[in-house]
Structure formats: structure tokens, C-alpha cells
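## retry 2 of 3
previous attempt timed out at serialization; input unchanged, resubmitting
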Amino acid sequence: METDIGTSKAAPHPLPKLPTGIEGFDHLSHGGFPRHRTSLVIGGPGAGKTVFALQCLVNAARQHGAPGIFVAFEESSSQIIANGNTFDWSLSSLTPEKLFIMDAHLSPTLITAGDFDLVGMLAMLAAKQQEIGAQWIVFDGIDVLLALLQDPAAEVRELYRLRDWLAASALTAILTAKTGSAPNFGFLQFMVDCVVRLERHQEDRISVQTLQIEKYRGSGYAAAEFPLSFGPSGIEVDATKAPDIGHKASMQRISAGFERLDAMLGGGVFRGSSTLITGVPGTSKTTLAGKFIEAACQRGERSLFVSFDEGAEQIMRNLSSVGIALKAHVKSGLLRMHSARTEGISAEDHLLQISALIREHRPQCMVIDPLTAIAKSGALGAARTVANRLIYRIKDEDISLMVTALSEAEGLGGEATDLQVSTIADTWIHLSYLVRGGERNRALTIVKSRGTAHSNQVRELILSDAGPSLSDVYTAGGEVLMGTLRWEKEAEESAKQTRHRAEFEHKRRELRLAEANTSAQIKALQLDLERQRAALTLSSGEDSLHTTSSNLRESELRKRRGADPARASTKKHANGAAK
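## retry succeeded, writing output
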């Protein structure tokens, strides 16, 4: 069957690899070291070469049941075991069938005499490989062998011998060597498939350790330099995760500490979000952080309080003075308090410690107070990088985080911090001082709160036995007043209102009196009018009665005088005609 090589596309075959179990390194190397090939770990004294190689063998034996052989050219097996027991590997419990450590100290006299080669040692190692079924092998301190040979031709000969033996043995091999320690050091790097460089250097009097993959045949890898740290479990490499951000976006709200602050935040902060509290010293950043943790514990949530340069007992004592009680939650195991010094410890080491605490305690809510303290541990650039990675790592764990940070200065532009983490924080609360009238008062404002219709007011933060609280906004002439000035202005306004009320009451009484007098006058006039009307009616009735009475009397008088009725009638008609 013929194949058109020019047009066919063969499916890619990824390079077989064996994971090392070293956190971060397997991610950077896209799976670990190349299987059945040789890798080189180089670095200066104390960079961690031996620990790195031994940790790979321990992890292979424990995690994958893959036996290994460790050949020590520089240290004895007892020294290797003693050093390894400083980690939580339980190295002494590994049987020689799982991890065989071989002393390979070379006698300078023997080598100088020209009677040395690797043939006998490699034969012994081949037998041990068959005996235990080894899959890994480490040659630790190969540079010691090369330095003792003192003959470039002998160095190349033994290196070729070792290369050919490793290729035939189908072992996954690791060689360790000091940087630039032998004339044929460049050839050593050429003959291997993967080269890892470990570095240790000083930055601002702090020791900083890094790892870099310089070469990896047949595989992609992260070529940048990455921080390296030593912890209880050995070496950890802080490998940056994939560039895409997959943080969860919860709609659940949790309390930021107390009711009035939650109201300013539109109902609290989102679960799994990060909150930054900035301010100069003494503005009560730790108090707000403590209130946040207390609220979490009262909800029954596991919490972690990490403080720098201040002891846990001292923090709990100070917080109790403002009504924040944490000791009971510590005793119950719900809250873990961890305090650490920043001097002499690199920012990477702090990151490693905090990561270990998170793995052990598995908190739902967490405080770091103050995060800016890690900037004292070495270079500021490294501290900024660590701070950003730490916040992202905590958010990856869906932990609700509150961090405090010291501001650079008071006044305009003083909200910024040295670590510059405000851009990645979801909520930013700033605390400041307002100094007027001979006193200093605390003010709180919300700079930002993503996804929340938050308040833009400047509120006075008041501390009391009952805990922190926020006073109502009080302005005078467009200026926010706090403390004694506010009290004096409120007292002045209260006195003014009292005077206004008294004047109002006085005028109202005068008006009522005037209304009463007017009503009395109107009533008197009405009575007088009624009297006059009655008099008029009486007078009219008397006049009518008098007229009637006069007619009756005249008629009666005529009648008594005996007047002639007919004549009288005639006279009456005559009088009517005359009219």
C-alpha cells in the first residue's frame, strides 16, 4: 500500500511523560519529566536540586507505586534520609524495594590513579533495577564525579557511558549538577532531553528562589521563571494557571460585618468576592475585618484570620474592646487565627504558608490583615505579584475574602496602596481621618463595589462597646460634619428649633387670645343688635296697640256721649271725600 507523504497528515503523538507530583511543576512541564529519557536539574549550592530529585522519587513510589533508585555522589545515604525526614514524606518508612539509596562516594585517590570508571557501578545498578523493578533513577551530584576525574577526555567518556546505559535501561532518569561546575558542563546539557534550572538570589536582603525550564525536547513547556518555595511537603512551584478566568459569580449576599455597612453596599457583599479595606494606620481596618469574620462565624461558616506582625491573642483582646468576640469561635474550631512575622521571609514563602492554611482549614470566609505587610519581605515587585496571585487563588477556591492594606498617605490620592491590588478587588472600602475643631474622626466611603448600587456618601465610623457603627450623614453648608463639630452644630440647630417652637407657641397663644377677644366682641355686637331689634319690635307693637286703643277709646267715647251714628257715618264719608 502506497502513501502520499506529501498530502497525508499524521496525527500528533504526544511525548510520554511521568508526573513528578511536585505541585506546579507538572503544570509548567505539561505533564512531568519525559518517560524513559534523561533530565538535568542544575543550580547553585542550596538551590534545592537534591530535594527536587528526591521528592520526585518519593512521590513516584507513594502516589504511583513506581520504585526508584537514588545514587548519591556527594552525601551519604544516612544524610539523605535525615534531610528527607525534615519533610512530611515519612521517608524512613519507604522500604529499599520502593526507594533504594546508594552511597557512591568516590575516592579521590582511586580516581587520580586512573583506575575508575562507571562500569562496575552501572552493573550493580542494573541488577538492582531488575531486583526491585525500578522505573526512576537519580544521579545526584554528577558534577562531583566530573570534577574528580580531572581529565576532559575521561569526563566525556564516562558521560557517554552513562548516556548509553540510561538509553538501554529504559529508566526515567534525573541528573543533578551545580551550575558551570565542570569543563564539559555544556555537553552535559546537550546530551539530556530536559533541563531545569533552580536559582537562589538575594532581593532586598531576602532570599528568593526560582525555577525555570530551559529545554524540553519534543514538548511544549512554560519557559518563564517561576517562584519556588520549600514547605512541609517539600518543594512547591507557584505555576500561574491558564489565562482564562473561571471564577464563579454567586448572586448570594453575605454580611460585610454590620447592618448599616450592608445597607451602604446594597445588601452586603457577594459570596466568593474579594473586599479591600484601605486606610492609614489607626482608621480601624482590623476592626472592620474582625467584624466581618465574627459575622461569618455567627452564620456557622469556617473562617480563617491571617495577621502579620501582630499576635492572635493581642488581636482578639483589642477587638473585644469594641464588642467583637472571637475567642469562643477559636475554641470551637470554627475560626483559625494565624499570625506571622514578615521580616526575613520572602513573599513567596508567605504565599506558600497561606496556601497550606487554606488546604488544611478549608475556610468559607477569610481575612488577611494587612496584605501590604508582605511588601516588607523583599522586592516590591515580587510582593505585588504574590498579592495578585494570592487573591486570584482564594477566589478560585470560592472563598469570601476581606483584605486590609495600608494607604500610602492621607489626603487626595492617599487611597492607593503599594501592592496595587485595588483593580482586582470586587469591593473597595476606604477609611480616612477628618481632622477639624481639634479632634480626629474616622470616615468611611465606598470607592467601588462591582455589581452593586452602593452609596456614595461619606459616613462617620463610630466605635463603641457595642461594636462599629455608621452615623447618619450630617451636612452644613454642603460640608459633612463629624465628631464634636457635628455635636455642636446639632446642639445649635436644636436650640434654634427650640426657640422657633417657643416663638411659634407664643404667637399661637396671642392669636388664640385675639380670636377669643374678637369672638367676644362679635358676640357682644350681636347681642346689642338683637336688643335693638327687640326694642324696635316692641316699639312697633306698642304703637299699633296705642293706635288701636285710641280708636277703641274714641269709639267708646262717642258711644257714651250718645252721638248719632248716622251723622257720624255721614261725617266720615264727608271727610273721605274731602281728602
